[in-house]
# Entry
Amino acid sequence: MSLNQKKENIPSHIAIIMDGNGRWAKQKSKMRLYGHLNGVKSVRETVECAAELGVNFLTLYAFSKENWDRPKKEIKGLMNLLIKTIKKEIPTLMKNKISLKTIGNTQDLPLKCQNNLKEAIETTKDNNHMTLILALSYSSRWEIVEAVKKIIKNKSIHSKINEQIFSEYLTTNKIPDPELVIRTSGEHRISNFLLWQIAYSEFYFSRKMWPDFNKQDLIRAINSYKKRKRRFGKIK
Ligand code: FPP
# Structure
């Protein structure tokens, strides 16, 4: 699969709900963590491919606030995987000029994970080819409520509030809204992800489980996006 019309009309921001790691592992009679481990390969391939294609922002839904209700063993395994992967991938991020950011309540994460994230964010902060945004301990309703709390405290802006100012109080401040949202595993739901930011996003659902999602699948999603007519509620 190649990219239709080369690099024209590539979405500037792609957001991905990486779903299906557990089911992928179950199909292979393996532990759920084996699915997450193999999900990291798809993360790496997707990040490199997005950077090659000229995507400016890539947001990955890596851990939701709701995911804290999973069994302790799975959470511990996932956190260890994050700790290891973040540290290990810094040289690749540097090589590809990718800066790392997070959205979500990262204070919920284990201290080691917070420290590795801080180090990776600081080391990569001047890279300007692509921004990789990891949604960690993120949920959109949490983010919206946090924004409202901050606005309540700042009385001077109450009479000026509009959509633009409200967006500045979200964790995605300065990040443009995603043009394309991809969800894997054949599920068709949004799971508390970027509810404000996806008002006019295009959706692409892949039946593949996340560990099977590869470069060709990303190109397929982008080609599908390129064929869409986006009207934003207008006629033309
Ligand atoms: C959803 O599959 C996946 C997750 C909750 C975790 C995603 C994490 C990774 C891909 C690995 C680490 C990520 C980075 C960025 C280094 P699921 O467990 O909900 O699968 P299921 O729906 O089949 O149960």
About this structure: The first helix runs from residue 21 to 27. The chain has one domain: 13-139+177-225.
